[in-house]
Amino acid sequence: MLESIAVCQKQLDDKELARRRLADEQERRDVAIKAGAREDSEKELAKLDADSATRTKAMKKLRGELDEIEAEQPQARSTSAAT
Predict the structure, then answer these.
(1) Rounded to two decimals, what is the model's pTM?
(2) Given this model, what pLDDT does residue 83 score?
């Protein structure tokens, strides 16, 4: 009888240990996923910052070219109207 109780207790202990291991593994997995998500987010933000800087430079260049064209147009209109 005591042997049967000992076997049952051993099985219960093994099940509890397996539950704890599973819970620990799930917690480690969740932490790893969150850490990976954070790293991915930081990479994405760095890429967006770089893209934004590139676009800002391009927009400034295009704005300057547009301003030059607009500055030349009244002169071209004045010259056309004069002839």
Answers:
(1) 0.45
(2) 56
**What are the DSSP calls for the chain, one per residue?**
-HHHHHHHHHHHHHHHHHHHHHHHHHHHHHHHHHHHHHHHHHHHHHHHHHHHHHHHHHHHHHHHHHHHHHHHHHHHHHHHHH-
Pick from 83, 82, 61, 80: which is nearest to 69 by CA? 61
| Distance (Å) of CA 32 to CA 8, 10, 19, 37 | 36, 33, 20, 8
Distance CA 36, CA 39 (A): 5
Kindly provide the b/e burial profile for residues 43-60, where b requires at least 16 CB atoms within 10 angstroms of the residue's own CB.
eeeeeeeeeeeeeeeeee
Amino acid of residue 77: R
List of the chain residues with pLDDT < 70: 74-83
